[in-house]
Amino acid sequence: MLLALESSCDETSVAVIHDGRVLANVVSSQIKLHAEYGGVVPELATREHLRNLLPVAREALRTANAALGVPPSGGSVASEPAEARTPNGLDAIAATLGPGLPQALMIGARAAQAMAFALRKPFFGIHHHEAHLYSPWIAGQPSVADFASFQPNVSLIVSGGHTMLVFVEAELKHHLLGSTVDDAAGECFDKSAKLMGLPYPGGPELDALAEQGDPRAFDFPRPMIRDLHDDFSFSGLKTSVRYFLRDQPFILDDPDRVRDLCASVRASIVDVLVTKTVRAAKRLGVKCVTASGGVTCNRALRKQLAETCAQNSLTLRLADKSLCTDNAAMVGILAERKLQHGVAPTSLDEEVKPSWPLAQRQTAGS
Ligand code: KG4
Ligand code: ZN
Prior knowledge:
Elements (H helix, E strand, L loop, with lengths): L1 E5 L4 E8 L2 E9 L1 H5 L6 H27 L23 E7 L3 H18 L3 E5 H7 L18 E6 L4 E8 L2 E7 L5 H11 L6 H9 L24 H13 L7 H30 L3 E5 L6 H13 L3 E4 L2 H4 L3 H13 L26
Parallel strand pairs: 1-4, 4-5, 6-9, 9-10
Antiparallel strand pairs: 1-2, 2-3, 6-7, 7-8
Helix pairs in contact: 2-3, 4-11, 5-6, 5-7, 5-8, 6-8, 8-9
Bound molecules: 5'-O-[(R)-(carboxyoxy)(hydroxy)phosphoryl]adenosine and zinc ion.
């Protein structure tokens, strides 16, 4: 059994994992707090992590003990509610070590290292993007135990902070194929939505409005869609939306046209993501595609990935919507796989790694 912490950005999360099963996954999101500022404010995020980590951990432990059928009495620490005590048989502690906001990472990682020290358990410092690779395998069927049978695969990780394609060659063995050279896709959704006057984070709002719009109403660029490499670029698309609205501000007075605009912007972003993901999968000859990260909640992305993968005889694994955004379950699942594969634990003195690139794929001539 394993206790995992995630605090790399604006979600404080604690999970308890046992044999590939998520016994608890408690997430406290700070979205409402940062909405006022139109983006994540690192100092506020740090303060909230400090404030929330213990209550979130207590709730996770209570939930895990209830799942294990442990009666809510007999706690050994007087000041601690009995039902929140650490489950018996804890094998290891894990936390996200990077990449992410430096101080935010420190809260979770230092707490996990201190717990590992006090409990004399191994500590696993986890790469946030590697953890995302595991979230499509957590809920539903097949489970994480079948992860190995779907390799190699190509994974799209797409959120407010990152957009990347990863080649998962085998379990615990993966390489970065490409990533955004400027804005992440989620950032493009959010900034386009902001230009339309939608509240932060605008991605989900824009997605909802797009459902009733015509995606062919306006023609926006599809950056890098024809380029054969696996990098992305979304800042130009955001700029196109800005110029479009500068030249036709009256569009915003017509709700039907706003819905068309949302649908057209969404279609551009989704076309690029789907085309490049499926092209990479075909080029590498894999049979499976996976996707995770907040933008994977997008309805059009889920639908278009499903249709295009089916047309190309590719199996698709999408993270469950509840696990697309940051959570400790994916951190714990990966850490447990490391433990089971005999990977050496991380030093208790290891520093957080705010910038921690995934290993690049070596191509011929590079
Ligand atoms: O994974 P996540 O919490 O972000 C980072 O850790 O960076 O995802 C948040 C991002 C935001 O940009 C949000 O607007 C976007 O995911 N998002 C969506 C949708 N739901 C969340 N974007 C488009 N359509 C959605 N339905
Ligand atoms: Zn993330």
